[in-house]
Amino acid sequence: MDLMELFFISLGIALVVYYGVKLVLFSRMLFPKLWFPLPKAFFTSMGDWAVVTGASEGIGRAYAFALAERGMNVVIMSRTKATLDQVAKGIGETTGQRVKVIVMDFTDETVFTRIEEQLKDLNVGVLVNNVGMLPTYIPCEFLDTEELDKTITKMINCNVKTMVKMCKIILPGMENRRKGVIVNVSSGIASVPFPLYTLYASSKVFVERFSQGLQAEYKDRGILIQTVAPFGVSTRMAGYQQTNIVTLSPEDFVKRSLLYLRAGDKTHGSVCHIVLGWLLQSIPLKLLYAESVLHGLQDYVKKKTRQRESLSASRTISDK
């Protein structure tokens, strides 16, 4: 056997082992309860309270309910008091847990002193940084964004600064008690550079890198920090798309994603979204960036937006 033949045999064996390991690791995602079990009292063992930002609807609301159902008192935060009060009432009636409502507009960078004051006496065991915003519902090129300067400031304050500031507020207590959970909600489209969603996707990349770095720093102190990066979830931000095997309801997504809490510093939260993440990273970027693909994406979102507005209008008329 000559040297070249030995090289190719060794290379083949290495590839088989490499992809075999990846297959085994992926197969674990099919059985999260088996591979990443959580004790029944896991969340309540972290502390008495959970804090959820952006909790008035969608994924944040679902996290608030899910954590209350697991025995935690919940602080819910958003900018719409009437909606928060409804959520608080629902949580109290269905779970019996205590709920604290904090009304805050996270696009305002001056709110965090008030937040810290209202949280200072609480034993916070879980923090869910969910609040986020799109620069526009219709995807567009960066310079075509309306009121671009204001939008940049709001996006950074809401999607980036809020997460960092909330970690700054909550993390010291977790470090002192040497336990806690922080879940930072990102987005599946941050898996690759994503044209037409450039500003939003980039802000979510920051969420992922910050979370992963923070987990490396504090993992040995008993604190679990994870990025959750969903794809299709039927929320207002996604135009309330009809649920299916890919597009999940917020409640279904949160229920599944909590099963992967011990699966690493980043998860897409469900098997179908994990597969989507792999597919997106496997697509050649030249194909993704093709003008026809980008125009098709814009047209699709415009169509869905018109359908949603038409349905909303028809419902309003029928209610009169």
How does the SSE layout of this entry go?
Blueprint: H1 3-28, H2 32-35, H3 42-46, E1 49-53, H4 58-69, E2 73-78, H5 81-95, E3 99-103, H6 112-119, E4 124-129, H7 148-177, E5 180-185, H8 198-218, E6 223-228, H9 250-257, E7 266-267, H10 271-282, H11 285-288, H12 291-319
Parallel strand pairs: 1-2, 1-4, 2-3, 4-5, 5-6, 6-7
Helix pairs in contact: 4-5, 4-9, 6-7, 7-8
- Given this structure, which CATH class of the largest domain is correct? Alpha Beta
CATH superfamily of the largest domain: NAD(P)-binding Rossmann-like Domain
What is the β-strand count? 7
Provide a count of the helices.
12
Give the biggest beta sheet.
Answer: 7 strands, parallel
- What multimeric state do the chains show? single chain
Instruction: List the helices and strands in order.
Output: HHHEHEHEHEHEHEHEHHH
State the CATH topology of the largest domain: Rossmann fold
End-to-end Cα distance, whole Å, is 85 Å
Instruction: Tell me the fraction of residues in β-strands, as a range.
Output: 5-15%
